[in-house]
Amino acid sequence: LSSSVASLRSSLSLLDSSITILDSGISDFPRLKKVLTSTRHFELTPSTTLQAAQFSLAAELQPAIEMLLQRCEAHVAKLERRQGALIARSELLEGRLSNDETQGLRKKRSLDRLVKGKGTGGDEKTLRLKALRQKKERLGYAVERLGLQSRQRQRQLRMSVA
Question: Which residues form the signal peptide (predicted)?
Answer without folding.
Answer: none
